């Protein structure tokens, strides 16, 4: 499975969603394999709101038929920021 080249900010989220749909839920293990840190210079801190809204719309359009009411409300909350 490849990343959706139309996405930058949400490419990993979309990839994980498609993996879940294709292969089922992930297996959870007790070992720590990755540590992520938050900082002001991270890529996601510099994403323009216009790009965020654009990618949210792309992902919503891809999965609109799978969205629950809670998903739709969460989308609206994010898109109106």
Plain-language structure description:
The protein contains three helices and no strands. The longest helix is centred in the C-terminal third of the chain and has 15 residues, at about 50-65. The radius of gyration is 15 Å and the shape is globular. The protein has helices at about 10-25, 50-65, 70-80.
Over the alpha carbons, how many angstroms does the gyration radius reach? 15 Å
What multimeric state do the chains show? single chain
Mean pLDDT across all amino acids: 92
Global outline = globular
Largest sheet, described in full? none
Q: Give the low-confidence spans.
A: none
How many strand elements?
0
Strand content: under 5%
- What structural class results from the helix and strand content? mainly alpha
Helix content: 40-55%
Taking the alpha carbons of the first and last residues, their distance comes to 31 Å
* SSE order: HHH
Tally of individual helices: 3
Quick recap of the structure?
This protein is mainly α and 81 residues long. The chain is built from 3 helices and no strands. The longest helix is centred in the C-terminal third of the chain and has 15 residues, at 49-63.
Name its key features.
single chain; 81 residues; mainly alpha
Secondary-structure topology with pairs:
Layout: H1 11-23, H2 49-63, H3 69-79
């Amino acid at each position: 499975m490849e990343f959706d080249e139309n996405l930058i900010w949400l490419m990993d989220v979309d990839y994980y969603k498609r993996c879940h749909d294709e292969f089922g839920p992930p297996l959870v293990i007790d070992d720590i394999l990755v540590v992520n840190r938050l900082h002001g210079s991270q890529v996601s801190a510099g994403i323009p709101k216009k790009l965020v809204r654009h990618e949210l719309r792309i992902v919503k359009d891809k999965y609109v038929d799978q969205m629950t009411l809670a998903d739709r409300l969460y989308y609206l909350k994010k898109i109106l920021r």
